[in-house]
Specification:
Structural class: alpha+beta
Helix content: 10-25%
Strand content: 25-35%
Number of strands: 6
Shape: globular
Radius of gyration: 15 Å
Oligomer: single chain
Length: 138
């Protein structure tokens, strides 16, 4: 019996062929029917794996949030049910534009939030990554 529903399964050899990895992952997991854990999203087309908006942190945040919305919809939830958001930036100078963009997507939601500045993300063209935890409403 499967307790968790895994959304958009993939293997890292398809996403990162230059890194010679082979890990079975997915974009989101619905756990015990109510909790939704969304993998860190970046400015990448979920179908083609193409990186988008290279060099533009705000547009990368917009695409990452569009991916979050799509994955929550596929899981049976939506942005209004986000409980926690974690934002990873490669440069603190992107904070204002990225947080402004995210704020437009989450107006009135009031999730808990953690922001981190990291030395790098999985690909050098990625400037921002956004991870969320949400619930599916009863």
């Amino acid at each position: 019996m499967t307790v968790h529903h895994r959304i958009r399964r993939f293997n890292t050899r398809d996403t990162y062929p230059e890194q010679k990895l082979s890990n079975d992952l997915c974009q989101a997991v619905v756990a015990k029917g109510r909790m939704v854990f969304v993998r860190g999203q970046i400015a990448q087309d979920l179908d083609t794996r193409e990186s988008l908006h290279v060099g533009d942190a705000r547009l990368q945040a917009r695409k990452a949030m569009a991916n979050v919305k799509l994955l929550l919809d596929e899981a049976g939830s939506d942005l209004s049910h986000i409980c926690r958001i974690v934002i990873y930036l490669v440069d603190i100078r992107y904070r204002e534009e990225v947080y402004t963009e995210i704020g437009e997507w989450l107006r009135g939601v009031f999730p808990v939030s953690t922001g981190l500045v990291v030395s790098a993300l999985a690909r050098p063209e990625w400037l921002v990554e956004i991870e969320v935890t949400a619930v599916i409403p009863e």
